[in-house]
Design goal:
The chain is mainly α. It contains 29 helices and 5 strands.
Length: 582
């Protein structure tokens, strides 16, 4: 029996074979019960085989108690075959009294105003027919009044919609093809994606629209860009443009490519960046046994010291740096938590980067890696700032005097500070927090070596070969207003490629709340850990694709604000007399 072979339950198959040898009266009762069962099936539920057998036969079989279960949708698809076999065994002739009031397929289709194919599709709604033999031996489908009435009540909306169906006229057909060509050229959608959008817009079935577009595929695709993938330079330009807030469609138009090709080109470039950083050793960090735990992320990234208080204004002048002499040390617990999380995030990003497909890189994985690296950099900057008093004391020890009295020129002192910061950065990279100890040990050693080397090479007073403490010619003391530069923007090799422009911080206050929030959450400028696009989408209650669009818009708004003008899309909307989207 075909139905039972689909259910794949031997016990039910045996039961049905037995039913075929029941009396005609018993078979007719079972046919009615199958019709009733079809009306109560929930496709999302699962039903025990014992229950199915009881609803059909009217008695329980203890041997079927371990017969397993069948999904409702599979059962609904199988019941028409069950009733067909029972009708075959009952040998019901056309015109039999048991078929009184029944409608043929043609009559029911005319009654509902639908096609016979639609009736076949409605089997999943419980519309099953009895089968009777005509005089010529031909089998006819007969729909009983109770079955028809039940489906009419339960599926009024579907029947009305099907009854109102009209074939696609020539004018609508032309509109569908024109719009499909526009979607293909502008967005690079596949025919199936275009069909789904147009089906919803024109209230047609997805398959009908898809088949129509397939017939006109040559017309739809002839105006679409046919150039090959972008070369290496094109990939770099596309990636940089997306980072600056340019929409993929605009880049695609510039290069004569489709939108997906531009998105893929940028993903290829970003994946290549990750590989370069890994191969250059930029993502090498100390290992820890806790990194291998199944719950490593929950354990390492859970402390509030790791997730908050990460963005603070960094020292910009010599006066601000010197003032750090009075600041006390960070707690050992906070220092250890942040260092461990910093190293974990970098190593985790390196691991994920190794799983990214070289030909078809997954944007979600790339975004996850970039977000982890942003987070790790924020933690590293916080750790470095905690050691700035150590940098000041080490430099003063090497120079033999306070920094504000240093016998070197401003340029030489700035060079010494930059070298000291670079050594401090390397000290953080090498700090093995899992083994205990304090960051001051490796950081102090690295800073002392670097600063001493610079002092010996240039001389305390700027004369090569002079040593600290030896008489030198007078040199103007450095000003307390001497700038140190944005040193926190150069502590990791990836910052220039993945971080928001530092200048955006100057215009955040003037931006709308949503645009400001997008930038702050993505960059971690609100003091909290940076978020991925998926996490941002969840916070904004939207999709990841929409979140990416909002990020690009926020970047455009910030860049326009820096120039003292409105974003280009708002200017275009104003020129049209409308309102900018976003």
């Amino acid at each position: 029996m075909g139905t039972l072979s689909r259910i794949r339950t031997a016990s039910i198959a045996d039961l049905t074979r037995q039913l075929r040898f029941a009396s005609r009266e018993a078979l007719l009762r079972q046919i009615e019960r199958v019709e009733e069962l079809a009306g109560v099936i929930d496709p999302a539920q699962s039903y025990p085989i014992e229950f199915v057998a009881f609803r059909i036969t009217g008695y329980r079989d203890v041997e079927l108690s371990a017969g397993g279960v069948v999904k409702g949708d599979a059962l609904a698809a199988d019941l028409p075959g069950v009733i067909e076999r029972l009708c075959e065994a009952a040998e019901i002739p056309l015109g039999d009294i048991t078929l009184r009031g029944g409608l043929s397929a043609e009559e029911l289709a005319a009654k509902w105003g639908v096609s016979r194919k639609t009736l076949t599709r409605y089997r999943r709604f419980g519309l099953i027919a009895r089968h009777a033999k005509g005089k010529s031996g031909r089998v006819h489908a007969v729909f009983m009044p109770a079955v028809v009435a039940r489906v009419e009540v339960a599926r009024t909306r579907e029947i009305s919609k099907a009854a109102g169906f009209t074939r696609i006229d020539e004018a609508t057909r032309a509109r569908l093809v024109r719009r499909a060509a526009r979607y293909r050229a502008r967005f690079g959608c596949s025919l199936n994606q275009i069909a789904a959008r147009l089906a919803a817009r024109f209230e047609r079935s997805h398959e009908a629209v898809r088949q129509l577009l397939k017939k006109h595929e040559r017309v739809i695709t002839k105006s679409a860009p046919s150039a090959g993938p972008l070369d290496e330079r094109g990939r770099r330009v596309a990636e940089r443009a997306l980072r600056r807030g340019v929409e993929p469609g605009a880049i695609a138009e510039r290069y004569g490519r489709m939108r997906p090709a531009v998105v893929r080109a940028a993903a290829l470039e970003r994946a290549a960046m990750l590989r370069r950083w890994v191969e250059a050793g930029g993502l090498d960090r100390p290992e820890s046994p806790v990194f291998a735990r199944a719950d490593s992320a929950e354990v390492i990234l859970a402390p509030m010291s790791v997730r908050s208080g990460l963005w603070e204004t960094c020292e910009r002048t010599l006066g601000e740096l010197v003032a750090l002499r009075k600041r006390g040390p960070t707690s050992a617990k906070e220092e250890r938590e942040r260092a461990l999380a910093c190293h974990y995030l970098v190593r985790r990003a390196a691991t994920i980067a190794g799983t990214i497909d070289r030909l078809h890189p997954e944007p979600t994985k790339i975004d996850e890696c970039f977000t982890m690296l942003r987070w790790a950099t924020l933690l590293k900057i916080a750790l470095m700032r905690s050691q700035l008093p150590l940098l000041v004391s080490t430099m003063e020890s090497v120079l033999g005097t306070a920094l504000e009295l240093a016998p070197v020129g401003a340029a030489k002192l700035r060079e010494m500070i930059e070298v000291g910061l670079a050594a401090l950065s390397e000290g953080v990279n090498q700090f093995e927090a899992a083994k205990g100890g304090r960051l001051a040990a490796p950081a102090g050693l690295a800073v002392n070596r670097a600063v001493t080397r610079v002092a010996r090479s240039m001389g305390a007073g700027g004369e090569k070969g002079a040593l600290p403490g030896k008489p030198v010619r007078a040199v103007a003391r450095p000003s307390m207003e001497m700038g140190l530069g944005a040193w926190e923007r150069a502590v990791d090799p990836w910052q220039g490629a993945i971080e928001m422009e530092a200048r955006f911080g100057m215009v955040l206050v003037s931006m709308e709340a949503r645009d400001r929030r997008v930038i702050e959450r993505r960059a971690g400028w609100d003091g909290m850990a940076p978020v991925t696009l998926a996490q941002l989408a969840k916070e904004l209650k939207t999709t990841a694709m929409r979140a990416a669009m909002l990020e690009r818009r926020a970047i455009r708004v910030a860049r326009a604000a820096l120039r003292g003008e409105a974003p280009a899309d708002e200017r275009r909307a104003k020129a049209r007399g409308g309102k900018a989207g976003g």
